[in-house]
Write a sequence for this structure.
């Protein structure tokens, strides 16, 4: 019996069997590996979606276009303590209060609204603030107090020493602008019926009203704040700013006076940055109507340029300007009345500091709100204002506003 022939036959049969089943086994192995990879990818995707869902409040922009923070929903929920229709707003508030408490901020009695979920209101506030439109520097989301901003008050001095003589030493001197939180707030009275509507037009109206009130308050103090009663000190009351006087009893603010203001900054090496004017609309009106007598006895004279549009006025002045009717027009000087202020400067040097987020409180029990079926909403924000270098601004406070 040929055992070797039998073994060879068995080996041949085994090889034949393997040749039949190996492709199937390889295919099954590839399928198993593919399924394993797919399961891994599905697990990763589930983790990503779970993280995105759980962090939707703390990551700005994740839910944009899907869940937008509603001002009216928040007010209604605060007022009636009913959050069934404001789950997203409650989640936003809860997350923000946790962060505020971790930073040592007391939010009891109110709700803090994070900047990322009420960005539209912040933008509206900035749009309505003249000083910000001119280029004031905004410092947002500050936490410490006071915040100290360094400024240089003196520089090195160069000398020409003689042969073998020592160079006279000079020191670089620095100072600090200290900013501390001061509360600015507005009180908005809303009908309960309006709050119940919660439609886009009502939402926009309330946001616009709040933004306007806060912007006007910040604007006025940035220009004219006197620093008393826990209020900021504005440009007009900052020690050391440049000034230009028109006359003993005031006078017309014209292009010549405007050039004098510009020269004041130029002399102080401060004519740089975001330069521009701020004045009352009546001052702008008088500039547009400026006339120059053409001969002796010419009562009014010819207009400097017609038509004098805002664009032409800006071109002739050489710098941007903004108007605000919060600047007074009833100042007096000598025998002059109906006088006003004009500001010129590098507005980057005006700092507006904001601490934390806005605080919302709502009540129907205030004053006669209950009788009138109203809810009064109070918005609070910690703010301070300061000027880094006084030489960067010039003030005229005797510009006549009476039209001839």
């Amino acid at each position: 019996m040929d055992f070797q022939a039998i073994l060879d036959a068995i080996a041949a049969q085994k090889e034949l069997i393997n040749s039949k089943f190996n492709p199937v086994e390889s295919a099954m192995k590839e399928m198993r590996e593919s399924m394993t990879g797919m399961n891994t990818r599905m697990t990763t995707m589930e983790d990503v979606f779970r993280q995105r869902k759980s962090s939707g409040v703390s990551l700005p922009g994740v839910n944009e276009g899907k869940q937008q923070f509603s001002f009216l929903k928040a007010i209604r929920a605060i007022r009636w303590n009913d959050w069934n229709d404001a789950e997203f707003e409650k989640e936003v508030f809860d997350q923000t209060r946790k962060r505020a408490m971790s930073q040592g901020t007391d939010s009891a009695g109110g709700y803090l609204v994070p900047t990322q979920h009420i960005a539209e209101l912040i933008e509206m506030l900035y749009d309505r603030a003249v000083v910000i439109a001119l280029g004031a520097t905004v410092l947002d989301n500050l936490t410490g107090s006071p915040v100290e901003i360094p400024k240089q008050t003196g520089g090195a001095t160069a000398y020409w020493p003689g042969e073998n003589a020592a160079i006279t030493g000079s020191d670089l001197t620095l100072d600090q602008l200290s900013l501390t939180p001061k509360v600015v707030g507005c009180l908005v009275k809303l009908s309960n019926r309006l709050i119940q509507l919660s439609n886009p037009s009502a939402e926009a109206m309330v946001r616009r009203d709040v933004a306007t009130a806060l912007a006007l308050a910040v604007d006025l103090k940035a220009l004219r704040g006197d620093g008393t009663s826990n209020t900021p000190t504005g440009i007009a009351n900052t020690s050391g700013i440049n000034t230009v006087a028109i006359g003993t009893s005031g006078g017309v603010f014209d292009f010549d006076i405007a050039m004098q203001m510009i020269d004041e900054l130029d002399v102080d090496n401060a004519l740089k940055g975001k330069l521009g004017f701020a004045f009352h609309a009546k001052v702008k009106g008088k500039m547009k109507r400026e006339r120059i007598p053409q001969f002796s006895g010419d009562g009014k004279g010819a207009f400097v340029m017609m038509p004098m549009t805002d664009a032409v006025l800006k071109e002739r002045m050489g710098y941007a300007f903004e108007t605000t009717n919060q600047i007074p027009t009833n100042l007096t000087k000598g025998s002059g009345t109906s006088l006003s202020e004009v500001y010129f400067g590098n507005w980057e040097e005006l700092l507006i500091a904001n601490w934390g987020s806005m605080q919302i409180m709502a009540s129907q029990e205030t004053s006669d709100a209950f009788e009138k079926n109203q809810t009064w909403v109070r918005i609070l924000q910690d703010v301070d204002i300061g000027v880094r270098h006084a030489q960067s601004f010039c003030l005229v406070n005797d510009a006549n506003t009476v039209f001839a």
Summary: The chain has a mean pLDDT of 77. The radius of gyration is 35 Å. DSSP finds ten helices and 15 strands in the chain.
